[in-house]
Structures are given as structure tokens and as C-alpha cells.
What does this fold into?
Amino acid sequence: MQDKSPGQPGDIVTQFLGRVVQTRLRFRELVEQLRALSTPSQGIGHTLITRAHIAQIAQDIHPGQLRLMPIRSNR
It folds into this structure.
């Protein structure tokens, strides 16, 4: 039995955590870009843009595996 160091293809947890970190970094960059692009006077619905981009990022990282949950309102 081989001793697998973190980052090797067989280490599923490390792969997953790497994807999470990568997603968070990409999301943070994306939010900064959206803030630079949108001003309140333009009225860009940043929630819709953000969800669309999250969906794209999720597909890029692990196609078919990540799903966005609908936002539930408690009203």
C-alpha cells in the first residue's frame, strides 16, 4: 500500500478542499470585478449576476457535480 502525500490524485479530500479554496478565490475576484463594474446608479442586479457566475464556476471546477440551491424567503 502506497503512502499518498496530500495533492496526489488519490487524495479525494485534498482535491475537494483544493476546489473549495479555488472557488472561493475565484468568487472573491469575481465579486471585486462586479463591484468595479456596477455602480448603484446603473441598477445592476448583482445577485442574479453572482448566481449565474457561481453556476459557471461550479461547472468549470467539477462539471455536473455542484448544484445551486434555490434561495428560500422566510416572508
Notes: Residues 12-37+44-61 form one domain. The chain has two helices and no strands. Helices lie at 12-37, 46-61.
